[in-house]
Amino acid sequence: MALGVASDGAAIQAHEFAYRRSADQDAPTPVRHPVVVVGAGPVGLSLAIDLAQRGQRVLLLDNDHRLSSGSRAICFAKRTLEIWDRLGVGDAMCAKGVQWHVGLVYFKDREVYRFDLLPDTGHERPAFINLQQFYAEAYLALRAAELAGIELRWKNNVVACDPRDDSVRLQVDTPDGRYTIDADYVIACDGSRSPLRGMLGLETQGRVFRDRFLIADITMDAPDFPAERRFWFDPPFHPAFSVLLHKQADGTWRVDFQLGWDADPELEKRHDRIAPRVRAMLDSIGAQAVDFTIGWASVYTFACQRMQRFAHGGRVLFAGDSAHGVSPFGARGANSGVQDADNLGWKLARVLRGDAPAALLDSYAIEREAAADENILNSTRSTDFITPKSAVSRLFRDAALDLAREHAFARRIVNSGRLSLPSCYRESPLNTPHADEDGWPAELCPGAPAADAPLYRDGAATWLLRELGPEFTLLVFGPAPSWAADLPVKVLAIDDRLADTEGWATRRYGAQPGSAYLIRPDQHVCARWRAPNAERVRAAWARAQGMPT
Amino acid sequence: MNTLTNEPNLDAPDDFYEALIETHAGLSEDESHALNARLILLLANHIGDLGVLKAALAAAREARAL
Fold first, then answer.
1. Chain A: residues touching B (Cβ < 8 Å)
2. How far apart are CA A51 and CA A58, in angstroms?
């Protein structure tokens, strides 16, 4: 059956994409491709779509012929949804995903506090949606199929990668045997066990945590059960460990039980072992009457680690889990991978077009390595709080939890996962720093992701982020200046025709009449001025593409 | 008179917490206990105000073990 946006989860997980023999397999000499993306997961698909939307021809290879099975990554953050809006899939994701904003934290037998991520108004997208990874992949795969620039070859398994001076040679196994292709650039989006990383003899370095966690999808007939994230520290029904309960689409819930290092992964995956754990958890929150069925289950371990360099020899780049790994607490895995793709797409497109020097790709590694460090730091801290590594660490953790019921300050110390926020490329060489602070909001400094705001175009509601791009945008508060007409950027003037009626944009951007922001194709700020002029904007635009200024 | 604040007041709670745990790295339980005592005395001196300190002492005692 054909895959469509209306396909249900069972159909998506059962769907088999057809292997098709390609002309490359019969070519007398290796066919050359400008860019080969390896791995059709959320990161590889997002990158391929971005490149194709920018006019590039992309070959996407996947060693399998199915989408993800089981829910896997489920929490997709606001920034990821904004990127997916740019890629044409944000609406489908949000229509299917479960929005949530309330989290409850329990310690032992009591609720100690609840937090509200209620998105402050004036943003199109919520703080988070929860959506099974296979739905996200299905919507991305459907979008990719609409784009003539993408050729997706299923059951094409890269088995050798040989970087040369001016290209990368790949050997690919298929049901019809092996063939060879050359690529200008290869992007490895092939997951945490990245075969490409292994082929190049590259390593990831970091901390491996000696702990095991059970995750399972359970389906409950409990439509009134609120879509809240519940996190237990040391509950009576699972003493000394942590438990997480979180809602997904289709009445499915994710449960996550910490098991400790000595647990037997095969044994714990059995449904007859999972059922009493889930029963006890539901009973503890007054859901004795709620029945459930168990679906996909897995026992995982994790490491907080990254490759030392995300670029190898200039022509092989790593993105997503192949480049970096985190704990699941904080939802920083898939979200940071999609941000990798977002960062790389426009740069690679410009380099392939010959519009920017290859050195622009160095900034991908610089910016996203720093982002990975930030994600690893947050993820490591969460893990150390959830699983104290010493008696005194447990003492302070329990003290913070004891205080959290009555004392608001202690809730800032309690750490059940610092939920994914987009990275700010504060130190990026692509930024044009400004000397004067002049009342600028720090959240929108050069390097920061642009903030959304409701706008009205000739009276019709729109959103600031939707008005940006696809290339560089000069966001001007006030009428479009005449000197900007000849610049190689899109000028977006907040004026009578594109009105900031409610004042959100002006407030968020700390704007005065005439203030301007230069915003990159990936919607990150690279410069801002109180008194912009053509020369300044042009210099910042060149700098943001790694060109001499 | 100053009062004990229980509203968030730490500049960077996660950095502080990590530094706190790191300070104890490699210490025995007795050594950690002693370090905590010294730490409380240092912070108490910094706060100074007896009313605030007494409020903190009472709050810490009340919050103990649910």
1. 107-110, 378, 381, 384-385, 390-393, 395-396, 400, 402-403, 405-413, 415, 418
2. 7
